Amino acid sequence: MYASYSEATLLDALRAGDEGAFAEMYKRYSFRLFTVAYQKLKSREAAEELVQDLFENLWTRRATIQVEQLDHYLFSAIKYRIINYIKTQKLRAGYQLYMQVSVSEKNTETEEALALNDLTAALLAGMQDLPEKSREIFQLSRFEHYSVSEISGHINLSEKTVEYHLTKSLKLLRRYLRDFLLAVLPILFLLK
């Protein structure tokens, strides 16, 4: 019976809540709308979802919908759903890429912070092995940023003696840190 209805008659019946009219609309247009969506999206699931969403929306808004030409309305509606779907997919892909890059940077930052903490701890431990006077001079030079002449005046030693202690400290710390890095590097490579 509904197969003989014109579009105008089907629309009137739809507005009155006639499920048979709705089923006839679905029968007439669903495959053609699916074909349009599938050709653009190349995804059966996405095309089916958009067509189902379109008819669900048509049924939900049946009492208030202002449609004069059913076919024009349905094909325009599927076109906009396809455009919105593509926009959403691009946005989602961009967000996923952003998250991958962001997580990767955070992981690198964490590893770098850990490496810096380990290196600082090793430096401080190495400084404990320095003779007391060399340690004091090294701290004034490297942590408090005094010049050689300022250190010389501060601890009443000649500038040559201060330079000797700095050279000796750097040599001992370099050796200590080299041994530390040789012990730690294989572990760092295993973590990556």
What would you say about this model in short?
This protein is an all-alpha fold.
Describe it for me?
The chain is mostly helical and 192 residues long. The chain has two domains: 2-84, Orthogonal Bundle (Rna Polymerase Sigma Factor, Chain: A); 110-191, Orthogonal Bundle (Arc Repressor Mutant, subunit A). It has helices at 7-15, 19-41, 44-60, 70-128, 132-142, 148-155, 159-191. Helix 1 (7-15) crosses helix 2 and helix 2 packs antiparallel against helix 3 (44-60). It is rod-shaped, with a radius of gyration of 38 Å. The relative contact order is 0.06. The model has no long low-confidence stretch (mean pLDDT 87).
Features:
192 residues; mainly alpha; Arc Repressor Mutant, subunit A; 2 domains; 7 helices
Please, how many helices?
A: 7
Q: State the CATH class of the largest domain.
A: Mainly Alpha
How many domain regions? Answer: 2
Named CATH topology of the largest domain: Rna Polymerase Sigma Factor, Chain: A
**Coarse morphology:** rod-shaped
The helix content, as a percent range, equals over 70%
Helix-strand pattern, N to C? HHHHHHH
The count of strands amounts to: 0
Structural class: mainly alpha
Largest sheet entry: none
How much of the polypeptide forms β-strand, as a percent range? under 5%
Distance, first to last CA: 70 Å
According to CATH, the homologous superfamily of the largest domain is RNA polymerase sigma factor, region 2, helix turn helix motif
Pfam families: Sigma70_r2, Sigma70_r4_2
Keywords: Sigma factor, Transcription, Transcription regulation
InterPro entries: RNA_pol_sigma-70-like, RNA_pol_sigma-70_dom, RNA_pol_sigma70_bacteroid, RNA_pol_sigma70_r2, RNA_pol_sigma70_r4_t2, RNA_pol_sigma_r2, RNA_pol_sigma_r3/r4-like, WH-like_DNA-bd_sf
Protein name: RNA polymerase sigma-70 factor
